[in-house]
Each structure stands twice: as C-alpha cells, then as structure tokens.
Amino acid sequence: MIQVQDLTKYYGPYRAVSDISFTVNDGEIVGFLGPNGAGKTTTMRITTGYIPPTFGTVTVDNFDVSKDSLQVRRRIGYLPETVPLYTDMTPREYLNYMGKLRGMKDGRTREARVDDVMEVTGVDNVASRLIGKLSRGYRQRVGIAQAMLHNPDVLILDEPTVGLDPRQIIEVRELIRELGKSHTIILSTHILPEVSMLCNRVIIINRGRIAVDDTLDNLEQQMASNDILQVALRAPQAPAQALLASVVGVQSVEPLPPSVGDPADVIRFRISGLPDSDHRAAVAHAVFSGGYDLIELKSQRLTLEDIFVNITTRDDEEAADAETVAAEAVEAEEGVDELNPVADDGSTATIIDETDELDTDKHVPTSGKGGHQ
After folding, report:
1. How far apart are CA 210 and CA 194, in angstroms?
2. Which of 250-254, 276-280, 322-326 has the lowest mean pLDDT?
3. Cα 172–Cα 103–Cα 129 angle in degrees, nearest 5
4. DSSP H/E element including 5
5. In angstroms, rounded to a whole number, what is the distance separating the alpha carbons of residues 153 and 61?
6. Distance, CA of 271 to chain centre
7. Considering 190, 222, 254, which residue would you say is the last residue of a domain?
8. Who contacts 50 (Cβ-Cβ below 8 Å, separation ≥6)?
9. How far is the C-alpha of 304 from the C-alpha of 191, rounded, in Å?
10. Can you give the CATH number for the domain in which 247 is found?
11. How many CB atoms within 10 Å of residue 230?
12. Global pTM?
C-alpha cells in the first residue's frame, strides 16, 4: 500500500530524514516511533503530500506523491498532531465543508457520509455544538472524522491521544482498533504501551534514520528472551556489585535507587544476562555464598520502552563518538595547516626540522592550499 524508498529531506543545511526505506502493507497498523526531532512528522508530511521530499520516492497504492499528489490525497486521511479545526463551526458544518473540499459534490451522498463518520467516531451527539465548546477528546474525534470522511484506504494519525484524559484515551484507542479492521494505519505516538495494544508492526526512527523495523511478535520474542532481574540484598554496595558481576552469564549489574520503605542497609541492582538464560538460582546462590541477606529477587521482562530507550541511546552515543572523531580530524587538519603554511606568493612553504640539519631527504613536500599532503 505504502512504499518509501531512499527518502531524504533537507531543511536548508539540516538533514531531517536520511535515506530511509520501508513498506506498509494493506491492512497493517504500524506504530511509527521516535524521539522528538527524529523525523517522524517530516516523513508523515511527505507521505501525505504536505511537503515534497528532497530525494527519494513515496508511493501510495502505486501513485507517486510527487507526481500524482491528488491521487495520493484521495487515498490518505491525515490527522496532524495539532488538529486544524474551525472552532466557530459545528462538527456537522465542518465535516460538510471538508467534504466539499474533497470533491464530494453530491449533497445527499455527502450528508449521508457525514452522518456515518459522526456515528463511527462518536460525535453525532454533539453534531450541533460549536467545536470551540467541545472537549479535547471530542475535538480529536472530529479530527479523525475528517480524516476518514472521504473513505480513504490509509489513515495517518500523528499523536491522536495527546492531551486526552484516561477515559478519552481509552475511547480513542477503541476507535483506532475498530478502524484498523478496514484501513491501513500509520500511528505516531510517544505512548509506547499504546503501540503494544494497537499495532502489529513497529518502526523506530532516530536521527532521521530507521533504527528498527519489525513485527510486534518478533519484538515480543526478543523481549521475552532478554529477561532482566531485580535484586535487593543487605550488603555493602561495591563488594555486592562485584559478586553479582562474577556470576556466570551475567553481562551487567546496575545499581538502582532504593524503593519506598527500604531500610538504609538494603541496596538494589538491575542485572542483565545472556539471552534465553535464567540466572535466578545462580544469583541467589552467589548472594548466600557471600554471606549476604537476600531480600528480594524477581524477573523483570524487557519492555518496548526498554528497547526504544536502548536503541535511541545507542544511536546517540554512536553519533556523539562520530562527532568527536570528526572534530579531532578537523583539529588534526588545522594542525597540519599550521605546520605547512602557504607563502604570500601562493606557493607552499616547506617546514624543515632543525634536528635534521638540513638533510634534504627528510624535507616534507607539500602541495595545494592549506598544506595538505
């Protein structure tokens, strides 16, 4: 249904999206995740035809977003993070107006469709109230109603539950789940449990690149095979941490803050080990062998939030390392320039090491501006 190929977007010199590719199949509900500034909204705006790509292609039902924008828009319903509503209209007036903009010329057909989407989204009971007087939850529902008004094959929803109270969140989630039975949906959200409840596939974007693209089933298997342990014991922290780290199969031991009600002499650790391994017995044995009191030992399953944090943190660290290497390279290059200055006449000077006593075999030839060898 949707194919994104080698998509890149620049805003001036800033690269918001960098050479990403993915496919969304017919009938899928895909969670599109990423930290702020990762490129999610930019990708969705390109996909919906709001802004053009710098490079790459996006096709929806085999129509190119850049070449067949109107055909793509007929097949997509878009709910942006900030819903563009006219607050001086009622939901019925607004949806009728949007229907006219979308080319629904027949009045009876349009009115019937407006009634249908208002019933599906649950705004039929406030159809005659001004949108400006509606709650945030009802405004989101009106926004979803306009996105599905023209009966598109694809719905792209950007933070559909942001700012809602718990009851409204549950209602909107149920609505999305029902819509997923007859639509292809891309759901962007910062609420990771929402993805677990609604989606069958997850794409995580970070720093403008795809970091993860996998089914939720595969991610759940990965989460199940990477159980972690939380342990509380009565012991000095440094020796206890070293003892736990020495257990065969344990990969890391991370100190945790005390829980409410913990005595002052109780310390806590988070232990991660090799995949598909149960280290509880070995950890308990090590604690007892060390002469310490074991207060608590429990298995904690890795969550989607853990995967998200690990991936984005890893990418940020790698990016920071790359920036450090680049800065060191620039400093090194500037250092070479200082050692190999350009003469006033444009020719390149040669620096001679005084300790070589003018040995011409050890002169360092340079060429080009800036003394690059």
Report:
1. 20
2. 322-326
3. 45
4. strand 2-11
5. 9
6. 26
7. 222
8. 78
9. 10
10. 3.30.70.3100
11. 15
12. 0.68
